[in-house]
Inverse folding.
């Protein structure tokens, strides 16, 4: 508690300093010392001195709060007062912002007469509240003396330290696993034993953090195990042990298809059919169920599956007993040596000079710390991460000699002392960020930017005195917690979850034990138990509960965070927001109502003076109340994927603290954005900027003042008029720019000089206006951008030429360009080869362009070369393109991937692409030859290709991965010119009957065949014994990208039983050599 108080008081003192000494505050105070404003200023100065004295005591409190209940009570009292003080100071800040906004001319708020601003008083009773807080703090300061707490430089001591269950997958990094070889061997021996009349259940039992999941992962991925079983499934269960959900997931895993049935009987029949005559291995990770009836219900489809196995990992012996399992495998602790190896791997990972040292002060202390981890690998990993990059011996000594080891062991605390010690050795600014995450349920996946914004809303980000933004500082906080193993990367098999994070269940328990009642999670709105100590609450509705009510919040609460969290595959939630709700939650800094069916936001939202974060992502909101524009502290307004939104409120320009405005990107629709958006000078991200067509709507000139934007999408550039100022050169922080053109009914062939646009805005009268159409090329040519831009995309552009500045080498940081043109007027490419940092280029839609010549490279000399940094290039939808010529030997020296599609007249590729490693050709009907491509390792041919290209003249000596789709001939011949080919995929070839010459493929390791209905087999039976086959006789699968083919493990050698469902056809055609199935 002392640690979180430390940061809270730091924040309070910082605010006091700003208010007492800041120019904005003093400029509003009359000079007379007898007026009430001067008295307030003296009260604030006294409050600041008291806070500083208490703040300096916290380092001593840090150690004493463990044992002394009086100290704990003292901390509880001061924390309540500190939060009240923070609220008061925040209200002062709000008033200053309000005066700043209302004192300026505004298109929405009438300009006040000169001098009226000094007649505005601060909220009634605020002075008395400050005096009350000051008196309470004075009493607390006296209690400090009675408790004999030392006043010392607490900040220095603390700063010296600075330097539902988690979803799991079957993947594991075995290079970080130590001491489990014998355990792995024993489990594998149990798995490979056959002859049981029923499914064997093998429970792995042990305490949290001992490595049960890791052992199961090692076994699951062992090659012998993979060859022994036909089907596999890895299921991460939940504490509720939902049989329906688990069965759905198993069916999806073994059938490789979606499973939406909610009828358990249907699922059982489907699963039983899929498992018939198959050996399967099922892993149920982290099971807590103690009801035998639920276990028996789950196992019904497995009743007659001989020689199949189920591995169960659990902490609970009683869970293992109800499964009628073999004797549970009790996973023991690591030896001191192995625990030391885990610790050393994490502590010295970035200090290789210590990895081989067997003695020395740090290694001696490290070995002793590892010994105290009591053989738990999670503890060793956590403490090792804590001390990573820390070479100060005093820091290591403090960890080793800390009192926490003794005290927590004496109290038999459920949280391992090593984990608690890791928490207490964190810098104070990290501790409150860490405990805040206990407001999320176990197993919740989160993204880094989202968490950082929530921290910012609570005021947890401490300015570091540099030019770094709060987002950047918060990002370093997150990275530090990740390095300390307090967060971890999600291991979800869902590839859409890349960049997501979670907390290990023990780490979550640690955070929850520290936060106590401050952070709560409820699964039913009716059981949302918010008391006077609760500051942060999340509601995680369970399936079937699709109406959210808030009757338990019918009285004023001190909540600072309220989140409605939608878990994976949960139905959309209907939220009923009574008017009293927000009126009772006036301390809120964060409210997130995303992924609900919310349609109307109450007007009372404007009363939340402290609100910093408002999440409305993917709701049914159409309009926002005008009262929202009085939220002068608001930093984040998230309306992403709100596809019903029609307009922003007229006073949006009053949100002067707004840093992130997320809007849906709708190319075929329009959001009315009023003038005044240019006042939001703190904006760092604006997902969509819709240009209007009259004086009430935003013009592109509004962007001039938004100099802090990092990423921007502009929609409706066709509405730019001659009066608009398109100078964006002041936006020096802009890194990514995307521009959309949309002409509605005005087609490319129309010669319209005016566009008719209709606006439907609820607060404004419905208007239909004429916009004078400027030439798109003229607008784009005169669009002035800062040369620090890194990524540029043009979508739907229909100008006659691309701008000259696009190939200007002064854009030295430009790494990515996407030209997705919407018309066929443009016939020449600018000299993009002159851009020194360009790595990724996409060009599409240039329907009239016939030739790519030397101008594309920038007319550089042959010795200099163009596109010096380009790595990937894609050309598509260029139906008139016939040739690409004049590529010199020094051009494209780093080009790694080339994709050409829908270029039906292109008859040749350029020479001199010596670095090319991956090539994709699609719908290039007259392309008959390849140049020499000595570095090519991956080739994909699909669509309407001229298959003369596939001949003996094709010389690709280093090709390793080949995918052929839509081949239209009955026989596919292979030649000796593919000596390195390892993986071959053939799919969607409706006429293919045979593949000949496969004996030439001397390096082939995997053959995959999908959706070739006439395929009868390989004519050559002399295949390598290690050759692996996967035959897909069903519907086609998506084409396999090179990155997937390269990274996937070799296909498993299939047993005879794998083909039971197609046994008749296989025997009829004798598809593959017999030795493959021995």
């Amino acid at each position: 508690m002392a640690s979180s108080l430390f940061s809270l008081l730091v924040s309070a003192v910082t605010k006091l300093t700003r208010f007492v000494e800041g120019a904005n505050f003093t400029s509003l105070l009359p000079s007379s010392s007898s007026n009430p404003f001067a008295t307030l200023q003296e009260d604030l100065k006294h409050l600041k001195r008291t806070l500083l004295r208490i703040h300096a005591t916290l380092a001593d409190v840090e150690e004493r709060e463990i044992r002394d209940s009086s100290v704990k009570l003292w901390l509880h009292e001061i924390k309540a007062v500190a939060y009240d003080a923070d609220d008061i100071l925040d209200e002062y800040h709000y008033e200053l912002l309000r005066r700043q906004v209302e004192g300026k001319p505004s298109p929405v708020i009438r300009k006040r007469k000169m001098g009226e601003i000094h007649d505005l008083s601060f909220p009634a009773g605020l002075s008395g509240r400050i005096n009350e807080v000051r008196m309470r703090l004075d009493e607390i300061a006296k209690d400090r003396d009675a408790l004999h707490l030392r006043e010392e430089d607490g900040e220095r001591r603390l700063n010296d330290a600075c330097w539902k269950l988690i979803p799991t997958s079957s993947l594991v990094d075995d290079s970080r696993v130590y001491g489990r070889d014998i355990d792995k061997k024993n489990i594998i021996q149990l798995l490979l034993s056959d002859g049981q009349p029923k499914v064997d259940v093998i429970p792995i039992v042990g305490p949290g953090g001992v490595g049960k999941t890791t052992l199961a992962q090692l076994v699951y991925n062992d090659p012998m195990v993979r060859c022994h079983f036909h089907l596999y499934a890895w299921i991460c269960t939940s504490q509720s042990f939902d049989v329906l959900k688990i069965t759905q997931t198993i069916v999806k895993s073994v059938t490789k298809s979606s499973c939406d049935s909610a009828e358990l009987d249907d699922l059982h029949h489907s699963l039983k059919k899929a498992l018939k005559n198959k050996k399967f291995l099922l892993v149920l990770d982290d099971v807590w169920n103690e009801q035998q009836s639920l276990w028996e219900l789950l196992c019904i489809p497995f009743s007659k599956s001989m020689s199949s196995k189920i591995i169960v990992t659990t902490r609970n012996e009683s869970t293992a007993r109800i499964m009628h399992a073999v004797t549970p495998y009790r996973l023991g602790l690591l030896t001191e040596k192995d625990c030391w190896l885990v610790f050393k791997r994490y502590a010295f990972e970035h200090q290789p000079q210590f990895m081989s040292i067997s003695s020395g002060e740090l290694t001696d202390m490290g070995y002793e710390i590892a010994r105290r981890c009591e053989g738990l690998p999670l503890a060793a990993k956590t403490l090792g991460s804590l001390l990573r990059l820390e070479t100060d011996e005093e820091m290591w000594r403090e960890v080793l000699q800390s009192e926490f080891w003794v005290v927590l062991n004496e109290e038999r605390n459920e949280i391992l002392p090593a984990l608690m010690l890791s928490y207490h050795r964190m810098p104070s600014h990290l501790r409150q960020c860490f405990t805040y995450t206990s407001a999320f349920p176990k197993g919740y996946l989160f993204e880094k930017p989202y968490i950082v914004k929530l921290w910012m809303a609570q005021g947890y980000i401490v300015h570091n005195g540099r030019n770094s933004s709060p987002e950047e500082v918060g990002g370093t906080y997150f990275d530090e917690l990740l390095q300390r193993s307090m967060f971890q990367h999600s291991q979800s098999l869902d590839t859409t979850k890349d960049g997501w994070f979670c907390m290990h269940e023990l780490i979550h328990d640690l955070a929850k034990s520290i936060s106590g009642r401050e952070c709560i999670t409820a699964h039913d709105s009716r059981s949302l138990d918010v008391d006077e100590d609760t500051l942060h609450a999340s509601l995680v509705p369970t399936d079937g509960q699709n109406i959210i009510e808030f009757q338990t919040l019918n009285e004023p609460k001190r909540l600072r965070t309220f989140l409605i969290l939608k878990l994976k595959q949960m139905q959309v939630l209907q939220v009923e927001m009574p008017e009293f709700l927000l009126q009772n939650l006036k301390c809120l800094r964060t409210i997130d109502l995303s992924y609900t069916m919310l349609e109307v936001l109450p007007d009372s939202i404007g009363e939340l003076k402290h609100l910093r974060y408002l999440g409305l992502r993917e709701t049914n909101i159409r309009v926002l109340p005008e009262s929202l524009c009085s939220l002068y502290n608001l930093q984040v307004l998230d309306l992403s994927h709100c596809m019903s939104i029609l307009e922003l409120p007229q006073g949006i320009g009053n949100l002067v603290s707004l840093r992130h405005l997320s809007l849906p990107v709708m190319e075929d629709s329009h959001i009315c954005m009023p003038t005044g958006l240019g006042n939001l000078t703190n904006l760092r991200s604006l997902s969509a900027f819709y240009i209007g067509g009259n004086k009430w709507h935003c013009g592109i000139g509004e962007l001039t003042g938004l100099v802090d934007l990092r990423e921007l999408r502009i929609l409706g550039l066709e509405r730019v008029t001659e009066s608009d100022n398109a100078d964006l050169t002041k936006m020096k922080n802009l890194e990514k720019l995307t521009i959309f053109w949309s002409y509605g009914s005005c087609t490319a062939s129309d010669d319209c000089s005016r566009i008719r646009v209709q606006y439907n805005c609820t607060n404004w009268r419905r208007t239909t206006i004429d916009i004078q159409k400027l030439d798109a090329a003229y607008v784009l040519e005169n669009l002035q951008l800062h040369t620090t831009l890194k990524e540029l995309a043009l979508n739907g552009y229909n100008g006659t030429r691309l701008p000259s500045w696009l190939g200007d080498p002064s854009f030295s940081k430009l790494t990515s360009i996407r030209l997705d043109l919407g018309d066929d007027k443009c016939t020449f490419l600018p000299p993009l080869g002159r851009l020194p940092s360009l790595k990724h280029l996409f060009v599409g839609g240039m329907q009239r362009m016939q030739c790519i010549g030397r101008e594309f490279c920038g007319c550089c000399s042959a010795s200099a070369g163009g596109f010096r940094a380009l790595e990937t290039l894609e050309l598509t939808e260029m139906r008139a393109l016939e040739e690409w010529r004049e590529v010199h030997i020094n051009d494209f020296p780093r080009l790694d991937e080339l994709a050409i599609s829908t270029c039906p007249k292109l008859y040749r590729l350029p020479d001199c692409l010596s670095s090319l490693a991956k090539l994709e050709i699609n719908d290039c009907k007259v392309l008959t030859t390849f140049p020499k491509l000595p570095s090519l390792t991956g080739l994909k041919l699909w669509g309407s290709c001229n298959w003369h290209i596939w001949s003996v003249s094709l010389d690709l000596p280093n090709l390793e991965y080949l995918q052929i789709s839509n081949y239209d001939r009955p026989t596919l011949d292979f030649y000796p010119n593919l000596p390195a080919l390892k993986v071959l995929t053939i799919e969607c070839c409706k006429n293919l009957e045979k593949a000949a010459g496969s004996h030439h493929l001397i390096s082939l390791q995997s053959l995959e065949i999908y959706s070739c209905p006439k395929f009868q087999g390989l004519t050559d039976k002399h295949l390598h014994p290690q050759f692996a086959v996967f035959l897909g006789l069903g519907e086609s699968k998506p084409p396999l990208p090179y990155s997937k083919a390269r990274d996937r493990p070799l296909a498993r050698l299939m047993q005879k039983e794998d083909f039971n469902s197609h046994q008749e056809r296989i025997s009829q055609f004798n598809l593959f050599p017999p030795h493959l199935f021995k």
The CA atoms of residues 350 and 389 lie 7 Å apart. Residues 519-725 form a domain with the Leucine-rich repeat, LRR (right-handed beta-alpha superhelix) fold (CATH 3.80.10.10). The chain has 29 helices and 40 strands.
